[in-house]
Amino acid sequence: MARKGPASEARKILLWLGALTVILALLLTGGTLWWGANPAPKLALDLEGGTQMILAPKVEGGTSINDDQLNQAVSIIRQRVDGTGVAEAQISTSGTNVVVALPGNPSNETRDLIKASANMAFRPVIASAPGQATPADQIQPTPAPTAAPTNPSDSNWVTPDIGQKFQAFSCLPPVSEPDTGADPSKPMVACDLSNGFKYILGPVEVPGSDISDASYGLQQGAQGATTNKWAVNLAFNGEGSTKFREVTTRLNGYYTVNPQDPKSQFAIVLDGQVVSAPTSQAVITDGRSQITGNFNEASSKSLADKLKFGALPISFDIQSEQQVSATLGTQQLEMGLLAGLIGLALVVVYSLFQYRALGLVTVASLIVAGVLTYLAIALLGWSQNYRLSLAGVAGLIVAIGQTADSFIVYFERIRDELREGRGLIAAVENGWKRARRTVLASKAVNLLAAVVLYFVAVGNVRGFAFTLGLTAVADLIVVFMFTHPTLQLLARRKFFSEGHRFSGLSPDRLGAVPLYRGAGRFRTPDDRPAVAKKNIGAVAEAERRQTIAERKLAERTKANDASQDQATEGPDSKVSVKAAKDQD
Amino acid sequence: MAKFINFATFGNELYTGKRSYDFVGKRKIWFSIAAVMVILSIAVPLIKGGFNLGIDFRGGSEFTITNVTDTSTAIGEKAVTDVISGQLPRVSKLAGNTMQVQTEKLSDDETIKVKESLAKEYGVNQDQVASNFVGPTWGADVTNQALIGLIVFVLLATILMALYFRTWKMSLAAIAGMLFVQITTAGIYSVTDVEVTPSAIIGFLTILSYSLYDIVVVFDKIRENTSDIATSSRRSFGSEVNLAVNQTLVRSINTSMVALLPVASILFIGSFLLGAGTLRDISLSLFIGIIVGGLTTVFIASPLYALLRENEPALVKQAERVQARIDAEARRSTESAEAASSASV
User: Is residue A501 predicted with pLDDT exceeding 80?
Assistant: First the structure.
């Protein structure tokens, strides 16, 4: 049979699934060999332990921190941690300190992000230079200023001290120590590590606490069309808007005279480092400005995050950092996995009892789903820092039930079709059409829950949402790419199509009488399964849903003397009837 | 059931309508039971003053023991439970032979007792045990975000289902069913006084998605069975819904079983072999929720949907047509029976 039918289609889909699995496995193997991935899933704080940092918050101006500010600090740090992936951190307060526990060994980036003080400010640029330090013997003395500075951009801020510091400052490795405690009313020297430039900056003009919001996105073009350039949008509160208008008015004056003038730039300074130093190309009157430049998605997000968190006038000192052991230890995980395995074995026994040989398809599907989920979790652990907590493990075990449900819905639909008296091949196709809708609709609910909770919730709930979404996707892949094609192929095997007693599809057990029973005998109306009076509808329904071929056949069988005809039910339930003389 | 029949036959009889359970018709009974459960689930926490919230929600006391020789966590657990009953201390080891023990908020007397007990059990001096109050790791901000997420999800799910089923009444019935599951599961937590931990909340959220999922599967069959209701005179709307529930009953039973088996084994192992902990917390809420969720779909959500739509004028007319057809058939069969009996005389 070299014809294109559901069977060859099914084989193709199974091949694709195999390819997908192999690609994922290769990715993981490659990652393990060359890029330091780990073939095992990463574990969360409760199972693996991690690092516990105690942070002492400092409020600008040295006042003691109040409860509101402490809670604000906790939620800011939580946002920062959640921004680095799906690792579930534990953040709480201890006295007036904030305690952050992170799974595994947090990277330096994460560590910096957590303690990154929000000591952010906008300062005008007075001078800039490439970042290499001038060797000590070549430093030129700077002349003392001739007059008192009139505005923050005035070159008269540059004292001999500042000038010398500026020349000696290195913004290329080895980088000079940033001046984190700079006096807001005095000029300072700072680096922009992203482009390796060094700047002399004037006094603070707008403090970071005046930022009301920051976001990132694709730039809007002149006609309101979206361009492919990334930009950061910045909004100030009322007071900030007023100050920012003054700044941009002055800086834009320099820009219109000479667009290359460093004085047309203002620097966004965080912890003594310049985060970005955009040129003021317009006067911003409404406190809403857009920073454009050589951004990609990641760098624009990072700047927007820094600006957003910069609105908190609290900085943190890491008081202590120590390794913390797992609170649950391996025993709970082992027991959990053992319980999962026992549960799985029970599921296998139950589905074999219920579905006989079809139960094996369920088991195989669950194994495929398990392999895919495992690969996904290991890969996500490597790329997204996704970590399994004990709650996550339990969530996965619960997912067994929901995954198996797609198969159960599908099998029951096939049985319904068989009860209507269809042949197995047709029943699989029809049952699939009807089951597919149900499976898609119900999984859509799960995916919706996962997506919404992932984007809205924080902390543990986010990890849960991730697991839920992951299993729903794995389930869809398996039911579409494994279970259905497998059944299409099995339906063509004698064991199933002839309805063996153990196939789980035997028509006798389903009270169905097949349309064609071999030896030229067709189902006659008397053979119909006994249908109660009130179920006339189901019969009508069945008749309505007959394929054209079946309908014709039914008419013919009524018209012809069955013993003269020989009919064979080919694949796709196309019925070919060797014509008797009186046939049209 | 008089005697056990095999499941396939059971399924056949349900499918053809030979065997039928009147889920829709007896709804008054189910709704009354549900009402009692909801009232209890709301009243008990109110009378008790809420739930038994764990340290993650309320904060608690923390002890740090330095220079410990034997860093076994069991010692710390025993030291706390010896002095104060009903505590589930959380003990972990910090680097440098330091132990950290967290308990629920203790009074000053209790704090001193626990300090002494810890020093004794770990064999260190009193001054090497420091105590402190710790804040909740599951603070108000986490709760708020989770609630916002839930509300957004419920709204979107309502819209999604209304679009898919093409009737907002199905959405309404599904959401009502889901809320019922949530309320009763919460009620059971309050009645049994089991500690509410972050794990229990995660289990709770799992149940939320599970129960809605289960309702959607059954409602999809109802949608299929009632798609031509306007033009058919087979059955009234209520019986059509009832048949759909009966036809999916085997699937409902199988799915609940398959979902329950792993959870039950976690619950069993978690409670009897490990004692309290994350596994027990999460599997208990799941175990309760899956049972309540499966029952709700069949006994509450589906009859509720029938109730919501039965009084639509078009469906009332349709029900009358069905009744007329049934009466006519009954007349015909009695006439023919009479004819037959008179002929045989």
Answer: no
Max Cα separation, chain B?
Answer: 111
CB distance B259–A324 less than 8 Å? no
Which of A277, A306, A282 lies closest to A216 in space, CA to CA?
A306
Q: Is A283:A252 a contact under the CB 8 Å cutoff?
A: yes
Cα A252 to Cα A124, A221, A257, A535: the distances in Å are 12, 21, 9, 82
Structure tokens at B229: 């209701």
β-bridge mates for residue A273, sequence order: A191, A270
Q: What is the dihedral of CA B224, B228, B234, B235, to 10 degrees?
A: 60
Mean pLDDT, chain B, integer: 80
B172 phi/psi in degrees, rounded to 5: -60, -45
What confidence tens digit (pLDDT) does each residue in A8-57 have? 777 777 788 787 888 877 777 777 767 766 677 777 777 777 777 777 77
pLDDT in tens, B158-195: 888 888 888 888 899 999 998 899 888 888 888 877 77
Amino acid at B216: V
**Residue B268: helix, strand or coil by DSSP?**
helix
Q: Is A448–B203 a contact, with Cβ atoms under 8 angstroms apart?
A: no
Contact A71 B141 (CB under 8 A): yes
Dihedral sign from CA coordinates of A158, A161, A164, A169:
negative
Distance of CA A24 to the CA centre of its chain: 17
Percent of chain A residues past pLDDT 70, beyond the cut: 71
Which residue in this structure is represented by tokens 């195989």? A364
Tell me if the pTM is above 0.70.
no
Percent of chain A whose pLDDT exceeds 90 = 0
Residues near A404 by Cβ (< 8 Å), separated by ≥ 6? A347, A351, A362, A366, B255, B258, B259
Nearest residue, CB atoms, B146 vs list A338, A408, A457: A457
Q: How many CB atoms lie within 10 A of CB B256?
A: 20
Phi, psi of A289 (to 5 degrees): -125, 160
Report the C-alpha gap between A66 and A339 in whole angstroms.
46
The residue ranges of DSSP E strands in A159-280, in sequence order, are 188-192, 197-201, 206-207, 211-220, 226-236, 266-270, 273-276
Strand pairing class (A50-59; A97-103): antiparallel
DSSP H or E run through A121: strand A120-130
CB contact under 8 A, A460 and B133: no
Token pair of B172 as six digits:
């309404």
Name which of A391, A412, A535 is nearest B250 (Cβ-Cβ). A412
Q: Give A289: exposed, middle or buried? Use CB within 10 Å, 0-12, 13-18, 19+.
A: buried
Residue among A258, A272, A261, A284 at smallest CA distance from A155: A261
CA A70 to chain centre: 30
| Shortest Cα distance, chain B CAs vs residue A471, angstroms | 12
- Residue A539 is which amino acid? V
Looking at per-residue pLDDT, the higher value among A525 and A197 belongs to A197
Cis-peptide into A39, omega within 30 deg: no
Q: How far is A445 from chain B (nearest CA, A)?
A: 6
Least Cα distance to A465 among A47, A45, A75, A88 occurs for: A88
Residues in chain A with CB shorter than 8 Å from the CB of B177 are: none
Q: What is the DSSP string of B285-303?
A: HHHHHHHHHHHHIIIIIHH
CA–CA separation, B295 and B256 (whole Å) = 9
Retrieve residue A292's tokens: 């454009």
How many C-beta atoms surround the C-beta of residue A456 within 10 A? 19
At residue A292, φ and ψ (nearest 5 deg) are -120, 165
Helical ranges in A356-482 per DSSP H: 357-384, 390-419, 424-456, 460-478
| Separation of alpha carbons A582 and A161, rounded Å | 114
Compute the average pLDDT of residues A181-204: 83
Question: Which residue reads 């029951």 in tokens?
Answer: A412
- Helix count and strand count (H, E) for chain B: 13, 4
